[in-house]
Amino acid sequence: MKRKFLEDLGLEKEAIDKIMAENDNDVNAAKADYDSMKQERDTMAAQVAERDKQLEELKNSTGDTEALKQQIITLQADNQAAMEKYDADMKELKLSTAIKLALGESAQDSDLVAGLFDKSKLILSDDGKVTGLEEQLKSLKKEKAFLFKEEKPAQVQIKGGKPAEGAGTPPSDKKPSEMTYSEMCKYLETNPGAAIE
After folding, report:
1. Which residues form a coiled coil (predicted)?
2. C-alpha–C-alpha distance, residues 93 and 36, integer Å
């Protein structure tokens, strides 16, 4: 989504900033999902190729059945170990991605702060939700606030107000004693605390 499109709709800057921030969060989440699925696909493709190679070797091998049975058992054990490693790697990738998404732009150094999370206490559900992440993030923000960027409160914009004009002194062409009542009121309104002689 382009900022100019929202500006052309006549939205205020604060509303545009909020929409763009939410859009960035959605894009980052989608990119993280894409990267995760791409890595998962590449890993699966490599495993399928390895298994195809193993099956081809078994097909072409000749020998006694006991040796073939032993080779099959060994290959099954290797494949099981490979699958367990793959599952562990995928869990690690999903947890790391979830942590980085939770941090967003709030951390001074997201890689450093991501390393402070205790992943053993995080629970990854089947739907991709991570339990315990928010609690650890709040705790880190409280205990190690210096690692996070200062959150600036949204600035309130007052419409219709004009900044004060002048430097706090009466116009050079009139003394306060020469001003009319309305000129004096206007002068005091634009210069609060001005001394009147």
Report:
1. 20-85
2. 7
Distance between start and end Cα atoms, the chain: 59
Clarify whether residues 98 and 169 are in a common domain.
no
Using N-to-C axis directions, what is the helix angle for 65-103 and 13-60, rounded to 10°? Answer: 170
Residue 155 lies in a domain: no
Mean pLDDT of the chain: 78
Whole domain around residue 180: which residue ranges?
A: 162-197
Show the tokens assigned to 182. 């309305």
Do 186 and 92 share a structural domain? no
25-45 residue pLDDT tens: 777 777 877 787 888 888 888
Give me the percent of the chain exceeding a pLDDT of 70: 84
Q: Considering all CA atoms of the chain, what is the largest pairwise distance in Å, rounded to the nearest integer?
A: 120
31 and 62 part of one domain: yes
Adjacent-strand bridge partners of 124: 130
- Which residues, 6 or more positions from 128, have their beta carbon under 8 angstroms from its beta carbon? 94, 98
Q: How confident is the model at residue 69 (pLDDT cuts 50, 70, 90)?
A: confident
In a domain, 152, yes or no: no
Domain count, the chain: 2
